[in-house]
UniProtKB/TrEMBL annotation:
UniProt keyword annotations, A-Z: Membrane, Transmembrane, Transmembrane helix
Gene source species: Spongiibacter pelagi
Name of the featured protein: DUF2232 domain-containing protein
Keyword Transmembrane: yes
Superkingdom of source: Bacteria
Transmembrane segments: 67-92, 112-137, 158-176, 182-201, 213-238
C-alpha cells in the first residue's frame, strides 16, 4: 500500500510539474524499490513504480487516457517478459513458496498447475493494474488541488478508440496462441476494457442523474457474478465504435 501511494505521489509530480521533475522523484523512489527487490526478493514495488512512471509520462505528454492505458499494458507485458527471460531463478523461488499452499488444494482434488510463466503473468498483470490505479489516484489528487471536478469529467468521457481496441484485441489473440506459458498474459490486455467499461457506466449514470445507488448495485453484482466482468468488457468494445454517450438524451438544465 505504501509503495502504491508513493508511486502515485511520484506520478502527481510528473503530471503537475513535468517529466524532468517527475523523473527526479522517480529516481529517488527507485532506490528503496531496488533495495526491496534485492533484499526482500520482491520485485512488485519496482515494477509498479516503473510502470506508473511510464503511464504518467504518456498521460502527461499525450493528455489522452487510452494511450496511458495502452502504456500500462506495455509496462505489464514488459515486466512479465523481463522476468520470463532473465528472472527464472526468481520465478522459481516464488514457485517454491507457493507450491506448499497449492498442494493442500491438490489434495482436495483441485487441478492446479502453476508454472513460471504464470508467476510472471501475475506480476505483469499486477504491474499494469497498480500502475493504472496509481496514476488515477495522482490524477484525482491533481484535480482536487487544481481543477475540482476535472477527474470525474475525464473518467466520464474515457472511451477506447477503435485503433486502441484493435491493438489490444490483436495482442490478446496473439498471446492466447503462443502456448501454455503465456496463457494468462492476455489479462493485461483485458484491463483497459474493464476500466473503459466502468467509466462508461459511471458516465451514463452521472449524465442521466440516476443516483449512486445504481453504481452500488453494479459493484455488488460484479463481486457476486463473475461473468458480468465479461459483459463490462464487451460493452467497452462496442462503445469504441458506437459511442453510447453521444446517443444519450441531453438532460434538462436545472
Amino acid at each position: 500500500m505504501f509503495a502504491w501511494v508513493g508511486a502515485a505521489a511520484a506520478a502527481l509530480v510528473a503530471l503537475r510539474k513535468g517529466l524532468a521533475e517527475g523523473a527526479y522523484v522517480v529516481f529517488w523512489a527507485l532506490l528503496p524499490a531496488i533495495a526491496v527487490a534485492v533484499m526482500a526478493r520482491d520485485v512488485g514495488p519496482l515494477t509498479m513504480l516503473l510502470g506508473t512512471a511510464v503511464t504518467a509520462a504518456v498521460l502527461r505528454t499525450m493528455q489522452y487516457w487510452p494511450y496511458a492505458l495502452l502504456a500500462a499494458v506495455g509496462a505489464g507485458l514488459a515486466s512479465a517478459t523481463a522476468l520470463n527471460v532473465a528472472g527464472q531463478a526468481y520465478l522459481a523461488e516464488v514457485l517454491a513458496m507457493v507450491n506448499p499452499m497449492l498442494e493442500q488444494f491438490r489434495q482436495q482434488g483441485a487441478k492446479i498447475n502453476i508454472q513460471a510463466g504464470d508467476v510472471a503473468a501475475v506480476i505483469g498483470v499486477s504491474t499494469c493494474l497498480w500502475s493504472v490505479l496509481a496514476v488515477m489516484l495522482a490524477r484525482w489528487w491533481q484535480a482536487v488541488l487544481f481543477r475540482p471536478g476535472g477527474f470525474r469529467e475525464e473518467m466520464w468521457q474515457l472511451r477506447l478508440p477503435p485503433t486502441v481496441t484493435l491493438i489490444l484485441v490483436a495482442l490478446l489473440l496473439l498471446l492466447s496462441n503462443m502456448g501454455e506459458v503465456y496463457r494468462f498474459w492476455g489479462i493485461c490486455c483485458a484491463l483497459p476494457f474493464i476500466v473503459a467499461g466502468l467509466a462508461l457506466v459511471h458516465g451514463v449514470v452521472g449524465r442521466l442523474n440516476l443516483g449512486r445507488v445504481w453504481l452500488v448495485v453494479l459493484y455488488v453484482a460484479l463481486s457476486l457474478v463473475g461473468p458480468l466482468w465479461a459483459v463490462i468488457m464487451l460493452v467497452a468494445v462496442l462503445d469504441s465504435w458506437i459511442d453510447f454517450r453521444k446517443r444519450l438524451p441531453v438532460p434538462p438544465e436545472q
